[in-house]
Amino acid sequence: MVTDAEWAWIRRGLRFGQVFEGTVVKVPRPGAIGIFVDIGLSVGGFVDVLLLPDEVEDWPVEGTVADFEIWWADSRQQIRLKPSDSRYLRTDFMDFLERCRPSWPADVGQPVRDPGPVAPDELRALFRSDAPLANSP
């Protein structure tokens, strides 16, 4: 679990459609909720059941390494993903996209929206570290 300030910091670097190689780490209730994916960040990735194939046997299993795209990120401190590989997408994905997220093509490449302001104390705490910042000289 990360702080709200850390989550805001991570979100600032994310773009819709950004591709990460990830490993499926958990399929808790096949066919019911979705899959959890480790994409190498300090927050988890999740693919919702709505984006996965109807047939559970077509879902990627634990240990599967594949590419995943950022589909959404909100205040839940979890990155919502979409499989890049069509084998792991619902078969009617294009129809689903037109009905549920017609703005997707325009969203790709756009920054993931900021969830709101971070309290100054949280932001200061984020920068209190012995490690130099990436943008530091």
Strand content: 15-25%
Q: What is the strand arrangement across the widest sheet?
A: 1-2-3-5-4
Q: Give the biggest sheet.
A: 5 strands, mixed, barrel
Radius of gyration: 16 Å
Please work out how many helical segments DSSP would assign: 4
Mean pLDDT: 85
SSE topology string? HEEEEEHHH
Question: Unreliable stretches, pLDDT < 50, 5 or more residues?
Answer: 129-137
Instruction: State the share of residues found in helices, binned by percent.
Output: 10-25%
| Structural classification | alpha+beta
The end-to-end span amounts to 29 Å
Number of E-state strands? 5
Outline: globular
List keywords for this structure.
137 residues, alpha+beta, 4 helices, 5 strands, 21% helix, 24% strand, globular
Fold and architecture overview:
By secondary structure, the protein is α+β, with helices and mostly antiparallel strands. Helix content is 21%, strand content 24%. It has a five-stranded mixed beta barrel with strand order 1-2-3-5-4. The C terminus is likely disordered.
How is this fold's topology laid out?
Elements: H1 4-12, E1 19-26, E2 34-38, E3 44-48, E4 65-73, E5 78-83, H2 93-100, H3 104-107, H4 120-127
Parallel strand pairs: 3-5
Antiparallel strand pairs: 1-2, 1-4, 2-3, 4-5
